[in-house]
Design goal:
about 425 residues, alpha/beta, FAD/NAD(P)-binding domain, 3 domains, 7-stranded mixed beta sheet, 4-stranded mixed beta sheet, 9 helices, 20 strands, about 25% helix, globular
């Protein structure tokens, strides 16, 4: 394929513009911030390449019901562009609007090239130039290359046997199919990572029946999200108070991470956080000993990424929700087989690995959505789980099949 050079002027010291030619890869929060800073430094000779058709990175791709940040809104935003957030933890639509307004108001939009993937970047040591190959056959050249790529926008699809033979529609949470109506449907969410714990309470009031498959329970802490009232909005509209709040949030976050003691079992800080989570389980499930046992982790706090969710545990107690404390090991045209060998009908499936979902039609014609959002094995037990199921919170886990010596039998479905 012939390739066209986009920046021939890059071969001269700084080209006719007198400023370096810069390429930014990714138009999420990082790429947008880089573009704003370049413009403020007087550098307009830059392009931001984004593989998705829109800006936002993970917030462009993850539009599933309930998607929101884990970090407080007044910290999870640009220092150079404050915003009148409507809640303590912004939801995806508000974050997307914030980013769109930022690129427009600060003049970054003309520098965007959307729907274009950077395939490679090669440094020429003699010319002191980066050669950037694009997926449309073009070649760009630049003096400086800024990588602002993320990883929460790339779906990790399950590799369960039989998944491709599933009889109905299927989709990942990072590719949520909004035209699928879950109202009065039977839905199975596979996994209990960050994406699943947001989706479950969001869709629970809509569906007829909701099954949540949990391979391994993780540590869950209430996030404490609240809608901001008029009084709080007025207080944070004062610039110095808004800056002070941002500083307070940053200090609290950084302090918790100092020295790494929070994630070292045996330290006072780690033990205190674990106790906090156990107390939260005890308070929430005091009337449900079955759920209390099922959601209590067996690995130390920090063994894998903690989950921040205020509404997830209460959702598990709703009458139309059932927690299945077992991994999914296979899929049939009409159902899901768990690690115990039990098969249940799943007319509709939605997979969610780090955010994935699937849906399909049941023999009775009812719809069931099955979301696979499996968590990774914890660091402390990964060796004891060869082939352990990977998922939403993990970047590197495989999937666990039936235990050695266990025949995969199909019993009468619990659901």
């Amino acid at each position: 394929m012939s390739r066209r050079s986009r920046s021939a002027g890059a071969a001269s010291p700084f080209g006719p513009a007198g400023t370096p030619r810069v390429v930014v890869v990714g138009a999420g929060f990082g790429g947008i911030a880089a573009g704003v800073r370049l413009k403020r430094a007087g550098i307009d000779t830059f392009t931001i390449y984004e593989s998705s058709p829109g800006i936002g990175g993970t917030w462009w791709d993850n539009t599933y019901p309930g998607a929101e940040v884990d970090v407080a809104s007044h910290l999870y935003c640009f220092s150079f562009r404050p915003h009148r957030w409507t809640s303590s933890h912004a939801k995806q639509p508000e974050l997307q609007r914030y980013l769109e307004a930022t690129v427009d108001e600060l003049g970054v939009r003309p520098h965007l090239r959307l729907g274009t993937t950077v395939e490679s970047a090669t440094w020429d040591d003699e010319r002191h130039i980066w050669t950037v190959a694009l997926d449309d056959g073009d070649v760009d050249e630049c003096h400086a290359l800024i990588s602002a790529v993320g990883f929460l926008n790339v779906p990790r699809y399950p590799s369960w046997p039989g998944l491709e033979d599933f009889g109905g529609p299927a989709f990942h949470t990072a590719r949520w199919e909004h035209h699928r109506d879950l109202t009065d449907k039977t839905v199975a969410v596979v996994g209990t990572g960050s994406s699943a714990t947001q989706v479950v309470p969001a869709i629970q009031p809509l569906v007829r029946r909701l099954y949540v498959f949990q391979r391994d329970p993780g540590w869950v802490m209430p996030k404490g999200e609240v809608e901001l009232g008029d009084r709080e909005l007025a207080r944070l509209a004062v610039p110095w108070r808004r800056r002070l709040e941002r500083l307070r949030l940053r200090y609290a976050l950084e302090k918790a991470l100092w020295g790494g003691a929070l994630f070292r079992p045996g330290t006072r800080r780690n033990a205190a956080r674990e106790r906090f989570c156990l107390d939260y389980i005890e308070r929430t499930f005091s009337d449900r000993p079955d759920l209390r046992a099922a959601v209590t982790p067996t690995h130390p706090f920090g063994g894998k990424r903690p989950v921040f969710a205020t509404t997830y545990y209460p959702a598990l107690k709703e009458d139309n929700v059932e927690l299945v404390p077992s991994a999914v090991v296979a899929v049939t045209p009409t159902g899901i087989v768990d690690a115990e060998g039990t098969e249940g009908p799943a007319p509709t499936a939605a997979r969610s690995c780090r955010c994935s979902r699937r849906r399909r039609p049941t023999p009775s014609g009812r719809s069931v959505a099955c979301a696979a959002s499996a968590s990774p094995p914890s660091r402390c037990d990964r060796r004891s789980r060869p082939g352990g199921t990977g998922g939403c919170s993990a970047r590197c886990a495989g999937r666990r099949g039936p235990s050695a010596g266990t025949t995969s039998r199909r019993r009468a479905a619990r659901w």
